[in-house]
Specification:
This protein is an alpha+beta fold. The protein has helices at about 45-50, 60-70, 95-110, 115-130, 135-145, 160-165, 170-180, 195-205, 250-265, 270-275, 310-320, 330-345, 350-365, 370-380, 380-390, 410-415, and strands at about 5, 15-20, 25-30, 75-80, 85-90, 185-190, 225-230, 235-245, 285-290, 295-305, 395-400. The protein folds into 2 domains: about 5-205, Metalloenzyme, LuxS/M16 peptidase-like (Cytochrome Bc1 Complex, Chain A, domain 1), CATH 3.30.830.10; about 225-415, Cytochrome Bc1 Complex, Chain A, domain 1, CATH 3.30.830. The strands form 2 sheets. The protein has a 6-stranded mixed sheet with strand order 1-2-6-3-5-4, with helices on both faces. Strands 7-11-8-10-9 form a 5-stranded mixed sheet, with helices on both faces.
C-alpha cells in the first residue's frame, strides 16, 4: 500500500491509495467528530446532521442527490460513530470528479429544510424503535450508558426522541460550522484514482469549509455498574464488560488478541466450552472496542432463561483462566485470524479507505499495515496473561435484557472479580 498525501490551500488533507488494476474507487470525507463531541442537551445531533445532509443543498434536491448518484451506479452512504462521521461513495473510476462534487456540495451547502427536519425526526424515531426492538443490539447501547453514565460518550448515537424533537435548523447549522473544520477531517480516495487529479478536484470543490473546528470534548470517565431489564423475550441477552484499553495503549494489540482467543470464532474458548461442550448458548463472543482515550472489553451471550443461572459462573471462570492459562497454539491461531482479516481488507477499496481514515484521524499519520502486523506478532503469551489480569481486575459493567429475573446480583458478580 503506497499512500500519497497533500493538503489543499484550505487546509484539507487529501490521501490517495492508488489501485490502478481495478475499475472502481471508494472515496469520502471522514470527520473526527461524533456522539462524544455533542452537548448532552443535543444528544443525537451528529447523527441527525448526517441524515440531513442527504435532504437537499443549494443546488440539489434530496431526490437529485439520490438520482444523480444512482444514474452512475454509485453507492452513496454515510455513518456516525462515537468519534467519527463519514460521507463516502463507491463508484466507477471515471466518475471520481462527480463524487468530489457531490460530497462537497452536501457538506458545504446543505440547507436543512424545515419540512425535511420534521420528516427526518420521524425516520430516526423509527430507527430508534427498531434498535429498541433488537435486544442483541440494544443491550450494547445500555452497556455504553452504564459504563459511561451522565456524559456524551455514554449517550446513544441515534439520540433520544425527546431531544431530537427540539433540534432545529439553526442548531444543525451551528453544529456543522463548529465541528466540520478542515483541521479535523481528511478526504480519502482508494482505488483507481490519480493523486494529482484528486487533489485538483478537492481544491476546487472544498473551498468554503472553515479551517478550524471547535470540538466539545472531555475524557470519558468509566464508572461501571449494572442494568437488568426484564422483558418478555425467548432469549436473555447478557453483556459483561470492563474498561479496556485505548487505541494508543501499548497493550491494544494484546487486548485484541485476547478477544479473538476468548470469543473470536468456533475454535475460541467461549464457543467451545459454553456452546459446544455445555450447550448453554446459541451465540457467544468477545469484543475489544478501542477508542482514542478509553476502551471497552467484554463478552456477549444469548441464552434461554433456564440456562442463565449456570451460564454466568462458567463465563466468569473462562475469563479468569486467561490470566494464567494461555497456550502458544491459541495465540498463534489468534494472530493468524487478525493478520488474515487485516490483509483481506486490502482487497476492498472502501475498507482500505475507511481504515486509512480511522488511522489518520487517530494518529495524524499514514496507515502502515505491516507495522500493525509487526506489533501483533510481537505479543507474547505473557503479554496476554498480563493484559487479562489488568482488565479483569476492574469494576464490571453488566447489562441484561429479557427473562433475566434469575440473574445473580451485581454485587455477586463483582465479587467474582475481586
Amino acid at each position: 500500500m503506497t499512500l500519497n498525501i497533500s493538503r489543499t490551500s484550505n487546509g484539507l488533507t487529501v490521501i490517495t491509495d492508488e489501485m490502478p488494476h481495478i475499475e472502481t474507487a471508494a472515496m469520502g470525507l471522514w470527520i473526527g467528530c461524533g456522539t462524544r463531541h455533542e452537548n448532552m442537551d443535543q444528544n443525537g445531533i451528529a447523527h441527525m446532521v448526517e441524515h440531513m445532509l442527504f435532504k437537499g443543498t443549494k443546488k440539489r434536491t434530496a431526490e437529485q442527490i439520490s438520482v444523480e448518484s444512482e444514474n452512475r451506479g454509485a453507492d452513496l452512504n454515510a455513518y456516525t460513530s462515537r468519534e467519527r462521521t463519514a460521507y463516502y461513495m463507491h463508484l466507477l473510476k471515471d466518475d471520481v470528479t462527480f463524487a468530489a462534487d457531490m460530497i462537497s456540495d452536501m457538506v458545504q451547502n446543505s440547507t436543512f429544510p424545515d419540512e425535511e427536519i420534521k420528516k427526518e425526526r420521524e425516520v430516526i424515531a423509527q430507527e430508534i424503535g427498531m434498535y429498541m426492538d433488537t435486544p442483541d443490539e440494544h443491550v450494547f447501547d445500555l452497556m455504553q450508558e452504564v459504563a459511561y453514565p451522565d456524559q456524551s460518550f455514554g449517550a446513544p448515537i441515534l439520540g433520544i426522541k425527546e431531544v431530537l424533537g427540539k433540534l432545529e435548523k439553526q442548531d444543525m447549522d451551528a453544529y456543522v460550522k463548529r465541528q466540520y473544520g478542515t483541521d479535523n477531517m481528511a478526504f480519502i480516495a482508494s482505488g483507481n484514482v490519480n493523486h494529482q487529479k484528486m487533489v485538483d478536484d478537492i481544491e476546487k470543490s472544498f473551498s468554503t469549509l472553515p479551517q478550524k473546528s471547535t470540538l466539545i470534548d472531555a475524557k470519558p470517565d468509566y464508572r461501571g455498574g449494572h442494568h437488568y431489564e426484564v422483558r418478555e423475550l425467548e432469549q436473555a441477552h447478557l453483556v459483561l464488560s470492563f474498561e479496556g484499553v485505548s487505541l494508543t495503549d501499548e497493550d491494544y494489540f494484546a487486548a485484541r488478541l485476547l478477544a479473538v482467543l476468548l470469543g473470536g470464532g468456533m475454535s475460541s474458548r467461549l464457543f467451545l466450552e459454553i456452546r459446544e461442550n455445555r450447550g448453554l448458548v446459541y451465540s457467544v463472543y468477545a469484543f475489544n472496542q478501542g477508542y482514542s482515550d478509553t476502551g471497552l472489553f467484554g463478552v456477549y451471550a444469548g441464552t434461554g432463561e433456564s440456562s442463565l443461572t449456570e451460564l454466568l459462573p462458567v463465563l466468569c471462570e473462562e475469563l479468569h483462566k486467561t490470566k494464567t492459562l494461555i497456550t502458544e497454539e491459541e495465540l498463534r491461531r489468534a494472530k493468524m485470524q487478525i493478520r488474515a482479516a487485516i490483509l483481506m481488507s486490502r482487497e476492498s477499496p472502501y475498507k482500505r479507505a475507511n481504515m486509512i481514515a480511522r488511522h489518520y484521524l487517530q494518529y495524524q499519520k499514514p496507515l502502515d499495515i505491516f507495522e500493525q502486523i509487526e506489533k501483533l506478532e510481537k505479543v507474547t503469551v505473557d503479554d496476554i496473561k498480563r493484559v487479562a489480569s489488568r482488565i479483569f481486575k476492574g469494576k464490571p459493567t453488566v447489562t441484561a435484557l429479557g427473562p433475566v429475573g434469575s440473574l445473580e446480583t451485581y454485587n455477586n458478580i463483582c465479587g467474582r472479580f475481586a
